[in-house]
């Protein structure tokens, strides 16, 4: 068992670095097992303090100060620092170290993937490359030279603009790169190897020419086309929406097979998980095309929100991530359907972020302490961080928001900033004091808003009483009220809005900024009682509690004018019904509700198939989970299936009708076609939910006829839980067809782990194609099982917990970041019914008693706390 308690880093302890390093020259001599890194930096003292550099797993060959070699007595090296005891106020430091990229299984720093060099430095990977003040507020101009074997590594890339290239003797060659924009070390990148490139170019609105390249595995260039289209669309969008241009002559993206995250915004050289670059019409789903578009956008948008304006310290991570997620969500909304995008974003927020906020790992969007920075790349920082910016736009209005963004870009360009800096811009643009709003950043937990209505028929006034309460979270029991901007409308029940005094077109924003607040609205003479539509478009990331009967909710759903709230009314109805079915196992699903939901699907089927598809999606177990404690996921899953079956029966003819039409050809990843395929996939899913004796035959036939990956995969997914010959035949056929395409085989693993049992997950983790060194493959088994298949993961026999526990303990010593991420799947353990709760606890305690990495230890300790 570990005895050393992890050291907490505290926001309050921030002190600026006492030196500035205006320039650094890095010289890499690339060899897989022994890469030599020489750094030459121009250092200036700016305040009092010791000269300490970060460095881990580096073999130090020599140090020179102003050209003079230092003796061992002149410096102190520990496992993670290098301190030079005496330095002048201005000096040149030269270090020479050797690193071993081939043994870097943690995929942080410089490592090898698919025989090529690549790097990942955020948050603290650069210290595995050379000695450096590895913190985001130390910004420097980087000049890079690298040499490598010419045959094995013909392409040499780094940040900025390419410089000299040439022969370096002995079959080696060299290349230089210069980045004119000062940057923190976490944005450094280097790639070297043999790639195919998809090239294009872009002219900015200022008339500047940019060469674009997407670097991929040999033979895969065509599969980079969509990523390139997405990149150009992103560049255009940022110019149009925020007036922000790209600022270098080159922008490159490199696809890497083994990558811990989605992608990384290194200046001018984004490095991507290949899953978010490669796509072709045969092997990629609409979800893949959408994800590529949004992640390419996300990383590109970081160029302004993240790179040119970076974070002062890692506590400010949401400054770049929340804001950039907001920007990528807006980008997707503009390119696709805004309401559909909003629904998808909220589904994800509710199932992941709300869960995190309600469990032992809850933390504020800007935390004030952390044990391990890698573990702060969470749904809260990213997704809730984005919601807070969206809610700000509602609170101060689009005009003040846009003006504030321009102030931010102008005033903070080239700096390492804080949330306070960011909000100062909106205080200026709106003329408002936003200090209370900033509480959202320091307070964890999802606020609950209770809504009460009182209609005075004689006076024709509606009194809306709102109150808020944020549940206690770990180490934060007292909560203060936050300003909650709620978009609100009064519906007339005839498809329009009621006239309300002082509201515009029957709409307004109610701001609940204290614990209780009452709003009195006067309606026109002769008006009927209006229906209240609140938190439209999900304007604030809260849970709304209303005491409405099924009848009232159905009436509201029918009267809604906001597509988000239409969808959400049905979600509330379905959730309530699932819990009723859980409590009344003998009772059939409410036919009136099923009919209303099916009618809504029929209503939108032709005009907005993507929206109709979302209506068929009942709340997932991850979301339902949060509404009851103790919770029995298997029982919930069963109740949910009963409701789904009833819906499938009601929509049987519609499903047949939808599926008898041909799928759109030729395939285009357009939102229109994707919407049609989303509805077809939903109908395929409902065909399985019917659970009739011929369902498997029908699904196998649909699989065989499916003209694209979206629908093939929908068939496979639907068949997996239906044991029998058809299912086995399709699983085998799919494998045989795609065994040479790793990204498709990831899906094959994920679908089975996501729909199967703990035994299936175990079997998949022993499959010859399972690969501990490839995070995508590991996630396609372990995360698909533990994060999307909650009924099986949390089954009472405890097998699910043990299987995942074993996977994690095998991963941890090679890749701590991945292990820690997988461990978060246990975060809900204490809410489980007693048997599963005990087994989850046992697995966590066993893990705690192993010699886990610092990252994994941090999660286990907080989960058990
Ligand atoms: N900045 C990257 C992104 O948002 C993610 C980096 C993840 N790094 C980490 N240590 N978790 O796209
Ligand atoms: Zn990001």
Could you walk me through the main structural features you see in this protein, from its secondary elements to its overall organization?
The protein is α+β, with helices and mostly antiparallel strands. The chain folds into 5 domains: 1-194, Immunoglobulin-like (Sandwich); 195-285, 2-Layer Sandwich (Zincin-like), CATH 3.30.2010; 310-442, Neutral Protease, domain 2 (Orthogonal Bundle), CATH 1.10.390; 448-540, Aminopeptidase N, middle-beta domain (Immunoglobulin-like), CATH 2.60.40; 739-865, Zincin-like fold. The protein has 27 helices and 31 strands. The strands form 9 sheets. The chain has an 8-stranded mixed β-sheet with strand order 6-5-9-3-2-12-15-14, with no helix packed on it. The chain has a 5-stranded mixed β-sheet with strand order 17-18-19-21-20, with helices on one face. It binds arginine and zinc ion.
């Amino acid at each position: 068992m570990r005895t050393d308690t992890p050291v907490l880093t505290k926001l309050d302890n921030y002190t600026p670095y006492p030196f500035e390093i205006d320039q650094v020259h890095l010289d890499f001599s690339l060899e897989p097992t022994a890469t030599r890194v020489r750094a030459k930096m121009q250092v200036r003292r700016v305040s009092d303090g010791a000269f300490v550099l970060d460095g881990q797993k580096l073999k130090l060959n020599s140090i020179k100060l102003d050209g003079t070699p230092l003796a061992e007595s002149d410096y102190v090296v520990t496992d993670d620092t290098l301190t030079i005891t005496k330095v002048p106020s201005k000096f040149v430091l030269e270090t020479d170290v050797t690193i071993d990229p081939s043994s870097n299984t943690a995929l942080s720093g410089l490592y090898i993937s698919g025989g090529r060099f690549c790097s990942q430095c955020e948050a603290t990977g650069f210290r595995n490359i050379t000695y450096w003040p590895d913190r985001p507020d130390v910004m420097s101009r980087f000049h890079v030279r690298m040499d490598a074997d010419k045959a094995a590594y013909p392409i040499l890339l780094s940040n900025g603009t390419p410089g000299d290239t040439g022969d370096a003797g002995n079959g080696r060659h060299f290349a230089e790169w210069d980045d004119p924009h000062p940057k923190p070390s976490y944005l450094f990148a280097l790639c070297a190897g043999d790639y195919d490139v998809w090239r294009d170019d872009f002219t900015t609105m200022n008339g500047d020419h940019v060469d674009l390249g997407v670097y991929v595995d040999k033979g895969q260039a065509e599969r980079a086309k969509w990523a390139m289209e997405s990149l150009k669309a992103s560049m255009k969008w940022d110019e149009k929406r925020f007036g922000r241009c790209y600022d270098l002559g080159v922008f490159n993206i490199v696809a890497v097979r083994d990558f811990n995250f989605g992608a990384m915004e290194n200046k001018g050289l984004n490095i991507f998980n290949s899953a978010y670059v490669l796509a072709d019409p045969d092997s990629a789903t609409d979800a893949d095309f959408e994800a590529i578009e949004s992640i390419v956008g996300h990383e590109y948008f970081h160029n302004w929100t993240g790179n040119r304006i970076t974070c002062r310290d890692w506590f400010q991570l949401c400054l770049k991530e929340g804001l950039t997620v907001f920007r990528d969500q807006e980008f997707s909304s503009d390119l696709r359907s805004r309401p559909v995008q909003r629904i998808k974003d909220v589904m994800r927020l509710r199932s992941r972020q709300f869960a995190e906020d309600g469990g032992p790992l809850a933390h504020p969007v800007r935390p004030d302490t952390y044990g391990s920075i890698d573990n702060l790349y969470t749904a809260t920082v990213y997704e809730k961080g984005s919601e807070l910016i969206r809610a700000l736009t509602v609170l101060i209005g689009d005009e003040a928001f846009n003006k504030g963004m321009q102030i931010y870009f102008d005033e903070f360009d080239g700096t390492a900033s804080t949330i306070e800096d960011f909000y100062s811009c909106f205080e200026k643009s709106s003329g408002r004091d936003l200090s209370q709003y900033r509480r959202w950043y320091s307070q964890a937990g999802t606020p609950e808003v209770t809504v009460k209505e009182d209609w005075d028929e004689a006076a024709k006034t509606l009194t809306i009483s709102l109150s808020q309460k944020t549940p206690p979270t770990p180490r934060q029991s007292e909560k203060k009220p936050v300003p909650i901007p709620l978009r609100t409308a009064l519906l007339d029940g005839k498809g329009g809005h009621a006239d309300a005094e002082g509201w515009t077109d029957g709409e307004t924003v109610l701001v609940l900024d204290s614990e209780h607040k009452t709003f009195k609205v006067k309606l026109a003479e002769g008006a009927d009682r209006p229906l209240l539509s609140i938190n439209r478009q999900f304007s604030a990331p809260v849970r709304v509690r209303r005491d409405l009967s099924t009848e009232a909710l159905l009436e509201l759903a029918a009267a809604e004018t906001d597509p988000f709230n239409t969808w959400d009314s049905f979600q509330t109805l379905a959730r309530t019904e699932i819990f009723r079915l859980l409590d009344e196992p003998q009772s059939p699903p409410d036919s009136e509700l099923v009919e209303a939901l099916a009618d809504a699907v029929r209503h939108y089927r032709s005009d907005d198939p993507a929206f109709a598809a979302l209506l068929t999606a009942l709340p997932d177990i991850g979301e339902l989970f949060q509404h009851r404690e103790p919770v029995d996921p298997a029982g919930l899953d069963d109740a949910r299936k009963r409701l789904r079956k009833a819906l499938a029966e009601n929509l049987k003819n519609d499903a047949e009708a939808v599926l008898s039409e041909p799928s759109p050809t030729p395939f285009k990843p357009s939102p229109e076609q994707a919407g049609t395929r989303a509805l077809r996939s939903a109908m395929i899913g409902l065909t399985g939910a019917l659970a009739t004796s011929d369902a498997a035959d029908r699904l196998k036939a649909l699989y065989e006829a499916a003209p694209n990956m979206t629908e093939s995969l929908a068939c496979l997914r639907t068949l997996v839980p239906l044991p029998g010959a058809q299912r086995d035949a399709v699983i085998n056929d799919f494998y045989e067809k795609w065994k040479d395409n790793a990204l498709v085989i990831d899906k094959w693993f994920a679908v089975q782990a996501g729909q199967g049992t703990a035994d299936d997950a175990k079997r998949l983790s022993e499959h010859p194609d399972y690969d501990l060194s490839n995070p995508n493959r590991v996630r396609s088994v372990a995360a698909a099982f533990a994060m999307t298949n909650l009924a099986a993961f949390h089954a009472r026999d405890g097998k699910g917990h043990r299987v995942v526990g074993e996977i994690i303990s095998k991963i941890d010593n090679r890749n701590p970041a991945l292990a820690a991420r997988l461990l978060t799947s246990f975060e809900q353990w204490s809410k489980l019914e007693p048997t599963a709760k005990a087994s989850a606890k046992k697995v966590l305690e066993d893990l705690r008693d192993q010699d886990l990495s610092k990252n994994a230890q941090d999660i286990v300790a907080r989960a058990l706390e």
